Amino acid sequence: MLENVLELSFVLVALAMLLSLYRLIKGPDIPDRILALDTLYINSIALLILFGLYQGSPLYFEAALLIAVMGFVGTVALSKYLLRGDIME
User: Fold this and answer.
1) Where are the domains of the chain?
2) Could you tell me which residues come within 8 angstroms of residue 79 by beta carbon, excluding any fewer than 6 positions away?
3) Contact assessment for residue 20 and residue 40, using Cβ atoms and an 8 Å cutoff
4) Who contacts 87 (Cβ-Cβ below 8 Å, separation ≥6)?
5) What pLDDT, in 10s, does the model give residues 27-68?
6) For position 43, what pLDDT does the model report?
7) Which of 10, 25, 48, 56 is deepest in the core (most CB within 10 A)?
8) DSSP letter at 58?
9) What is the CATH number of domain 2-84?
10) What is the four-CA torsion angle of 25, 29, 35, 37, rounded to 10 degrees?
């Protein structure tokens, strides 16, 4: 039962990633693209956690944590650049 739910979750998260990628490419303006990038890395974290559950390995959880930290820093840097025009000010 759990394997069926995990496989369905893989498909749904992959679909969400495709929709986020579409918004990232087609987005009408910069804030929409930043939000799509943020959503894309959150979906990649979900995909890694699901894969870690499927494989039974804790290594994927550590990779998801690293992606979360890098994604947060990237989102903050892009937002500061959008607001001020300079990141290190």
Assistant:
1) 2-84
2) 34
3) yes
4) 77, 80, 81
5) 889 889 989 999 999 999 999 999 999 999 999 999 999 999
6) 95
7) 48
8) T
9) 1.10.287.3510
10) 30
Q: Are 79 and 67 in contact (CB under 8 A)?
A: no
- 30-67 as b/e, with b when 16 or more CB fall inside 10 Å? eeebbebbbbbbbbbbbbbbbbbeeeeeeebeeebeeb
CA distances for 42 relative to 3, 13, 36, 66, 88, angstroms: 22, 10, 10, 12, 25
Residue of 23, 20, 9, 59 lying closest to 42 (CA atoms): 20
Return the percent helix, strand and coil in the chain, to nearest 5. Answer: 85, 0, 15
Q: What span, in angstroms and rounded, lies between the C-alpha atoms of 8 and 6?
A: 5
* DSSP 8-state secondary structure symbol assigned to residue 87: S
* Residues 3 and 53 sit within 8 Å (Cβ to Cβ): no
